[in-house]
Description:
Oligomer: single chain
Strand order of the largest sheet: 2-10-9-6-5-3-4
CATH topology of the largest domain: Aspartate Aminotransferase, domain 2
CATH class of the largest domain: Alpha Beta
Distance between the termini: 35 Å
CATH superfamily of the largest domain: Type I PLP-dependent aspartate aminotransferase-like (Major domain)
Radius of gyration: 22 Å
Helix content: 25-40%
Organism: Cyanobacterium aponinum (strain PCC 10605)
Protein name: Glutamine--scyllo-inositol transaminase
Strand content: 5-15%
Order of helices and strands: EHHEHEHEEHEEEEEHHHEEHHEHHEHH
Mean pLDDT: 95
GO molecular function, one term: pyridoxal phosphate binding
Active site: 207
EC number: 2.6.1.50
Number of strands: 14
Amino acid sequence: MTLISDNLKTKIEDLAIFGGKPLFSEKQHVGRPNLGDRTQFLNRINDMLDLNWLTNRGPFVKEFEQKIADYLGVKHCVSVCNATIALELAIRALELTGEVIIPSFTFIATAHALQWQEITPVFCDIDPITHTIDPDKIESMITPRTTGIIGVHVWGQPCNIEALTTIAKKHNLKLMFDAAHAMGCSYQGKMIGSFGDAEVLSFHATKFLNSFEGGAIVTNNDELAEKLILMENFGFSGLDNVIYIGTNGKMSEVCAAMGLTSLESINEFIEINHQNYQCYQQELKDIKGIKLFTYNQQEQCNYQYIVLEIDEEITNISRDKFVDILTAENIIARRYFYPGCHRMQPYKSYFPHAGLLLPETEKLSNKVMLLPTGVNMNPDKIIKITDLIKFILDNTCSIANKDNK
């Protein structure tokens, strides 16, 4: 039993943070794994064990790559053990060096994948509406050492791909995308995955479509794909024949089996996410100081994130206090991407004044809060969460007074 019945909040002493019973008996996570058909997955595991082929580009990996490529309408999909390795391989395969421009409002792996290879991430500010890198701020950051741009499709919201492509071509820069959030999303009617020189996908357990752990690089560039296949397997081209420098980035057969099973349920996962999003949208509309990130209904979207911006000046309660209160109720709300890559090490030491150039990133990283969604959520749970949010907003002064005692 997940819900605790008869636990409506009627006074602030009912809040779990002040000693009341939590609204949920089990933690409600932002990224609790979605599971496909268990029987189908176990059938694949039995087939894998019967075949006795566990890794090294087995039949499930090849099938998974082909089905991802077909789904996205892209020529090549190279699966890897996780999306961080995918970023590192794509960066190296594209021969990026010197400086690469990225947003600071992203998961730290985007920056680390560059710095790990002694490439300097140059942090660019974001568009406050789309939450993605602002093309208007990029050209002023280009130097003679700049070799590329990495756009990040945040929440599945595509970057302004057209503008980034124009800038990259104008300055002869490589362009790739961190599409970890964007599996199943589209831009101008075309699926994310085939833009730029390459795009990187994540199939981590917390993503709406998972392979336990995994990632992929997708591209229409034949030469790049050939290079990536070599790089993910130590540079081997056939038996005992190493022709390129590489590492061990291969996806295992068990992960590919999970990925295939997830892919078979992708439409169901997206539909549930969409229903959850619509429920949150209905319940949180017209609430001052609370802004729900909205998705473009003209495009395909995975709706895997429920993103709120909390305006403390209007609500009289900080985003962080909101997170603390919800967490005590077993609603594991999350701050993303707090505090921004530029405020994490080693970048905080390298670029101590970066925040001055990133005002929108600074504002957003202190406003954003993510709420639970996925197949484990339903309208009853969502209404309990949104009713609690309304209760908190109605009692901000009382909460502040009790905190100060």
